[in-house]
Inverse folding.
């Protein structure tokens, strides 16, 4: 992992957000990809992408979300609304705060660094793509969901720069019980993280990733032919990229919120006409990789269906298809393709962004 001195810091309100930055390429129209990491893994997990950025006319930034040192942690009072079974009425202050802080980071960073704005004639030239990997799909949704509550100068800056939001392999759509994998009931925190780590970093051999038949997916038995991502790291090395404290604490609480809270967040971000009109041109993309756990691919299948035929029971009768949303299931790579094959990962992200 990069040394702590490699992390830069940006003050957002009263909090320090630390990040890795590839720096700008020698170009006047480069695009900036800003990554938010997932559950239990810090921003350093994306480090292999940074050396490849300039060759693709990219600037790549990987943020340590709050709760992951050396970024600021959370006070207990900030987390009271999230946790086991919490619904949107309780969780909304947390979602709003996270969306506001991330939006403010983007606005401050874009302005201070003088990055190229997005090109209205070419929506993938210049500007910013915000990429939420895994659990951080919730955080990027929060930016859209609460855009209308941001100060006008933040809204104006984001309209100038942020042209695409990409979610890489998010969960949140319930899986039928007989296919569900859930490590949360392991009482020992360290053992629970080990189970999660082994599950998330494995490769899964599916009969089909396009059939939309759940019986074609593998949920719990990983391939024995391909080693897990990060398998060569010692426990000490692994600890440099992970945070047991965040896994158990802030992110564990977020993950355990009632699924209706995520549905409400998704509706507000993607299927609310009045809010979409405040930021109508941002593009929304979803992708997952082909040897990811079955739960990830199942969620993609279901979400793609929901985009085409919005289920009233999940999102309400007033939900509307009002945004440019596209989904893709990539044929190669697991949940950590950016670690195993960073060049291929950049190719896959580019394909998804340019759908």
């Amino acid at each position: 992992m990069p040394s702590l001195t490699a992390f830069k810091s940006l003050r957002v309100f009263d909090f320090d957000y630390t990040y890795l930055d590839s720096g700008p390429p020698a170009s006047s129209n480069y695009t900036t990809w800003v990554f938010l990491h997932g559950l239990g893994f810090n921003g350093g997990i994306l480090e292999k992408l940074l050396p490849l950025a300039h060759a693709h006319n990219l600037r790549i930034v990987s943020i340590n979300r709050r709760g992951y040192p050396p970024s600021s942690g959370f006070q207990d009072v900030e987390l009271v609304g999230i946790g086991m079974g919490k619904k949107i009425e309780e969780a909304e202050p947390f979602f709003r705060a996270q969306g506001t802080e991330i939006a403010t980071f983007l606005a401050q960073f874009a302005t201070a660094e003088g990055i190229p704005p997005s090109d209205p004639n070419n929506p993938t030239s210049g500007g910013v793509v915000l990429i939420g990997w895994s659990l951080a799909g919730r955080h990027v949704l929060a930016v859209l969901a609460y855009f209308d509550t941001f100060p006008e100068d933040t809204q104006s800056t984001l309209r100038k720069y942020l042209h695409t939001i990409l979610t890489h392999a998010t969960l949140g759509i319930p899986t039928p019980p007989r296919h569900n994998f859930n490590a949360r009931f392991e009482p020992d925190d360290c053992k629970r993280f080990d189970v999660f780590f082994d599950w998330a970093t494995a490769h899964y051999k599916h009969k089909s990733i396009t059939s939309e038949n759940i019986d074609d997916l593998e949920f719990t038995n990983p391939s024995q032919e391909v080693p897990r991502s990060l398998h060569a790291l010692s426990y000490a090395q692994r600890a440099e990229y992970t945070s047991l404290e965040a896994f158990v604490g802030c992110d564990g609480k977020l993950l355990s919120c009632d699924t209706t809270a995520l549905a409400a967040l998704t509706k507000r971000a993607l299927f609310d006409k009045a809010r979409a009109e405040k930021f109508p041109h941002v593009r929304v993309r979803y992708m997952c990789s082909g040897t990811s756990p079955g739960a990830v691919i199942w969620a993609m299948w279901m979400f793609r269906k929901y985009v085409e035929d919005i289920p009233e029971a999940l999102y309400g009768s007033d939900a509307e298809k009002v945004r440019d949303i596209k989904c893709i299931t990539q044929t190669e790579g697991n949940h950590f393709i950016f670690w195993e094959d960073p060049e291929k990962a950049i190719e896959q992200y580019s394909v998804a962004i340019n759908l």
Remarks:
- The chain has a mean pLDDT of 93.
- Strands lie at 8-12, 15-21, 31-36, 58-64, 128-133, 162-168, 283-288, 324-329.
- The longest strand covers residues 15-21.
- The chain has 13 helices and eight strands.
